[in-house]
Design goal:
The protein contains seven helices and eight strands; from the N terminus they run E-E-E-H-E-H-E-H-E-H-H-E-H-E-H. It is an alpha/beta fold and 218 residues long. The chain has a single domain, classed as Rossmann fold (3-Layer(aba) Sandwich), CATH 3.40.50. Strands 1-2-4-3-5-6-7-8 form an eight-stranded mixed β-sheet, sandwiched between helices. A hairpin with a 7-residue loop joins strand 1 and strand 2. The chain is globular. The two termini are 24 Å apart.
Length: 218
């Protein structure tokens, strides 16, 4: 694993994992944590380790967060800068919770992204979790920051969500898939929020499979 900076801020870096043989594609892992500074890319390391073993080049990125120089548009700008910083060819973005928001948002904004996997993603800032979304951006910024306001995304999106998610209601993914023509909804029965980033769970295996399918179409 190689640590690479893409900017001067202490949060503008990522960890690049290279497979042992010919790469099967490239994945950008975007961690969650409701955009807060207290959560970091260590959340993405277990996923990166599985995916690099599957044969993918994996770029696990950090970004400026609320309380550490982030907010909108800085947080989004960092994600786009990170995607451009390493020449991986076409990439699939994989993001959990707040990272799911950023993964789908980046699919709309970056030509390098060929598809996105949202793991219990925060996809509509006007529903269910508005107070937390307001910590990232103002309501006036929702039209730029909220994926639901940006449809059509123009890329395939797979939304994997547990029906017992205790932090982000499954309705976030259901509602998004109802308005995005290229979105696929995968509801995991009995799945909770953190199952999505816990290797070995059904939720993670559904995410892993989605990455493989999207990468195969890049």
């Amino acid at each position: 694993m190689q640590r690479i900076a893409y900017g001067d801020h202490s949060s503008q870096f990522g960890e690049l994992y290279e497979p042992g043989g010919v790469a099967q594609g490239a994945v950008v892992v975007i961690h969650g944590g409701f955009w807060h500074q207290r959560y970091g890319l260590e959340l993405g390391r277990p996923l990166a380790e599985v995916l690099v073993a599957d044969g993918f080049r994996v770029w696990n990125i950090e970004y400026r967060r609320v309380g550490g120089g982030g907010g909108w548009p800085e947080t989004g700008a960092d994600v786009l800068a990170a995607i451009d910083a390493v020449d991986l060819g076409p990439v699939v973005t994989l993001g959990h919770s707040a990272g799911g928001h950023l993964a789908v948002w980046a699919a709309k904004r970056s030509a390098r992204v060929c598809g996105a996997v949202s793991q219990a993603g925060v996809l509509d800032f006007t529903r269910h979790i508005t107070p937390r979304a307001l910590e990232l951006c103002s309501e006036e910024q929702f039209a730029d920051a909220s994926p639901a306001a940006l449809v059509p995304i123009g890329k395939p999106v797979v939304c994997v969500h547990g029906d017992r998610d205790e932090d982000v209601p499954v309705e976030q993914s259901i509602g998004f898939c109802a308005v995005e023509p290229l979105a696929e909804l995968v509801v995991v029965e009995g799945g909770g929020h953190m199952d999505m980033i816990t290797p070995g769970t059904e939720s993670w295996e559904r995410c892993r499979a989605a990455v493989g399918r999207l990468a195969g179409g890049c």
